[in-house]
Amino acid sequence: MTDPQDTPPEDDSFLAAEFALGLAEGEDLANARFKLAHDRQFALKVAAWQESFARLTDDIAPVKPPRKIKKKLFKDLFPKQQVPLLERLWVWKGISFAAIGLLAYLAIPMLRPAPPEVPVPVLAAQLKGQSGPLELLAIVEAGGTEVGLRRIAGTAPEGRVLELWAILPEQAPLSLGVLPQTEVMRIALPAVLAGKLGQVTLAITDEPVGGAPDGSPTGEIRAVGALEEI
Amino acid sequence: MDRREIENLIARVALKDRAAFDVLYDQVSAKLFGVCLRVLSKRAAAEDAMQDTFVKIWNNADRYQANGLSPMTWLITIARNTSIDRLRARKSGHQDIDTPGLELSAPGPSPEQAAVAGSEAKRLIGCLDGLEPDRASAVRGAYLDGQSYADLAERFNVPLNTMRTWLRRGLLALRECMSQ
Predict the structure, then answer these.
(1) How far apart are CA A32 and CA B165, in angstroms?
(2) Mean pLDDT across the stretch B63-68?
(3) Which residues of chain B neighbour A66 with C-beta distances below 8 Å?
(4) What's the whole-model pTM score?
(5) For residue B21, what are the CA distances in angstroms to A78, B62, B70, B103?
(6) Is the pLDDT assigned to residue B56 strictly greater than 60?
(7) Is the pLDDT of residue B111 over 70?
(8) What is the mean pLDDT of residues B155-177?
(9) CB burial readout A182-206, b (16+ within 10 A) else e
(10) What are the pLDDT digits (tens) for A165-193?
(11) Which of B98, B102, B97, B21 lies closest to B67, judged by CA?
């Protein structure tokens, strides 16, 4: 039995190397683990050997792993139902808006019944759920202070209300308020969104009556879409 | 790969920043997959080891700072040890290899000490080439193929104790060469 206190330095270095290589067995392994946790000098020796042995991988060529590994890894680590809304923004960016031009064209009369004399850039978003039936069209003038929404399909689940959120990249969702149950809605935009409308993603969650209690979304995302210039 | 960039990413992953984890994956997965493939040879096993490796990185990034390893060494060591654990898993009585930063360890070295360890490490390949070929080959066999003393003794057809003495002399010679 080796007494950790009496081990000569060279034995220590050898034990550290054995341990780093994965060769230490039985009593030696137990001894190495104990020292790693309690002896700073030993931990340093192990780290130095690890650093050295890692050089043996220098000439191992990188191999691009199949994409499915990353997919599976992220799915396993971050199962969707447990992911708070706030952290799902990356999902939202991937939603496609192929139909947006046509829908926006149909929606323009909502904001501007008469043809404008000076064309103003307009942004629009098609808000759709990944599974549910809810679908809305949102449209706003560049520099506008309110967003117009038209309900295409779907309503709030029984006993819940729909709440609209504006999300800027890397920021927490900002509540724009609970949506009325009408077909066409006008919702005021807070001044903090001025000049940033092109980066805004709109999302609708279902919330308890009266809206999300503490200003952050709590319910399911029912529809989502990014504002894009048309 | 830039050391500071990887270090910065690991620090952000320690704070559970998924975007940073995503970037870290894109930056280092090819190297780590290469290591897993080298150890395990079989693609399916290497893919599983890779997945495990990144789960460990996600779960333990907050312990990285304490272990005194350079960031790539830490990542490579996790990939290598995870792969070797898989390789050995079929054998009875196998105990997993510990990775500094995944196990409790005493407070790590100062940045100066770590820098010394890093510059010594660069000499490993040259010093390994200076060893007797069999000894160098045993070190590589243990590190890259997860061979135990018993495996090595069989491979070189020597008694177990002789193997251990051999390797001991080899490693101490290596240590001396690298510190010069």
Answers:
(1) 18
(2) 75
(3) 47
(4) 0.60
(5) 12, 13, 18, 21
(6) yes
(7) no
(8) 91
(9) eeebebebeeebeeebeebbbbbbb
(10) 888 877 778 889 898 888 888 888 888 88
(11) B102
What is the predicted pLDDT for the residue at A181?
A: 84
Contact B76 A55 (CB under 8 A): no
Quick check: A196 and A149 in contact, CB under 8 A?
A: no
Question: Residue A195 is encoded by which pair of tokens?
Answer: 């000049």
B52 closest CA partner among B6, B84, B95, B88: B84
On chain A, the residues whose CB falls within 8 A of the CB of B19 are 90
pLDDT at res. B98? 60
Q: Tens digit of pLDDT for each residue in A132-143?
A: 788 888 888 877
Tokens of A209: 């009556």
**Cβ neighbourhood burial of B15 (10 Å; 0-12, 13-18, 19+):** exposed
CB-based contact A224:A92 (threshold 8 Å): yes
Which pair of tokens denotes residue A216?
């952050």
Question: Residue B32 is encoded by which pair of tokens?
Answer: 């780590």
Long-range contacts at A31-39 (CB < 8 A, ≥ 24 apart): A31/A2, A31/A4, A33/B98, A33/B103, A34/A4, A35/A4, A36/B98, A36/B100, A36/B103, A36/B104, A36/B105, A36/B106, A37/B103, A37/B104, A37/B105, A37/B106, A38/B106, A39/A4, A39/B106
User: Which residues make beta-bridge pairs with B51?
Assistant: none
Enumerate the residues of chain B whose CB falls inside 8 A of the CB of residue A63. 30, 33-34, 37
| 3-state DSSP assignment of residue A73 | helix
In chain A, the residue whose alpha carbon lies closest to the alpha carbon of B138 is A21
Partnered with residue A147 across adjacent β-strands are A187
Question: Angle B83-B91-A19 (CA atoms, 0-180°, nearest 5)?
Answer: 55
Nearest chain B CA: its distance from A30 CA (Å): 11
Q: CA A187 from chain center: how many Å?
A: 26
